[in-house]
Amino acid sequence: MVKIEQFLVGEMDNFTYLIIDEKNKKAIIVDPSWNLDNIFEYLEKNKLVNTLIINTHSHFDHVLGNDQVVKMTGAKIIQHKASPLKKDIEVDDGESIKFGDVQIKVIHTPGHCPDSICLIIDDKIILTGDTLFVGSCGRIDLPGSDPDEMYYTIYNKLANLDENLIVYPGHHYGSTKTSILKNEKKSNFVFKFHNREEFLRYMNT
Fold first, then answer.
1. Tens digit of each residue's pLDDT (9 = 90 or more) over 98-126
2. Band of the pLDDT at 66, cuts 50, 70, 90?
3. Which of 6, 71, 102, 136 has its CA at a distance of 20 to 30 angstroms from the CA of residue 27?
4. pLDDT at residue 204 greater than cutoff 90
């Protein structure tokens, strides 16, 4: 049985997540940054052992806590192979991370960042990092961002996923902390463009 615990942290409205394998009492910290004491307290209170860190991409506000988590828990760091940062395990598009009874599928979703990934957990939940937010998508005007890749990611990858996936984003920028992919495809403006040119024209203005 998998459980997702969501923590709103820092002044940039980041989300840090725990992916919890309740049967084996183990956890993965996703995107550790600020307020790590809250995460450690939760682990201790619930007698959970954290064994892994997964970073959805390499921007500082999603990796800031890596070293402290490694120091406190001995966790191994998992990132996409394109990440320039220190990592113990590299993953690529379509690969799976087996975590006790939990299956985590990696989808490479560049656009916001070259090494961006989304995580599909037990075919029910998707952690979207800064690729997709509730009501919007990640910025594509930053160094390393690519509007063309974001278009491909949204329309050739995310749009084709199971619409019942529960969306857990990397920041609390929307009206709710979570969503359902079906609802995002209906209401999120990033899914509304008719073609690549229209998308790029809008996103580049």
1. 999 999 999 999 999 999 999 999 999 99
2. very high
3. 136
4. no
Query: Domain total for the chain?
Result: 1
Q: How many residues does the chain have?
A: 205
Extended strands (E) in the chain: 2-9, 14-21, 26-30, 49-54, 76-80, 89-91, 96-99, 102-108, 117-121, 125-129, 132-133, 136-137, 166-169, 179-180
Other Cβ atoms less than 10 A from the Cβ of 138: the count is: 26
pLDDT digits (tens, 9 = 90+) for 153-200: 999 999 999 999 999 999 999 999 999 999 999 999 999 999 999 999
- How many Cβ atoms from other residues are within 10 Å of residue 38's Cβ? 13
Look up the CATH number of the domain holding residue 141: 3.60.15.10
From the number of C-beta atoms within 10 Å of its C-beta (0-12, 13-18, 19+), residue 159 rates as middle
97 neighbors 104 (Cβ within 8 angstroms): yes
| Structural domain that includes position 129 | 2-203
The SS3 assignment for 156 reads helix
Helix ranges (H only) for the chain are 36-45, 60-63, 66-73, 147-152, 181-187, 196-203
